[in-house]
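Example record used in the benchmark description.
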Amino acid sequence: MTRDDVYKQLSVYLVDLFEVPPQDISPEALLYEDLDMDSIDAIDLVVKLQDLTNKKIPPEEFKTVRTVDDVVDRVYALVAK
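Model output (structure tokens):
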């Protein structure tokens, strides 16, 4: 799985599960401010990403994520291990 694959799948999740308008999704988009996600959404997203990667994602891995690109970086690092 490439970094681009992670970004594309994350975009699909954001649109399908959280009704984020596709035009709002960019690597720099802030999850809470720009995409209007909340902490419950973040937990739901981590669950979906665990399904995608087939790996347990420790919650502390996502405490510092702020942007779409931060999420891609963390997920890609997990699948690259």
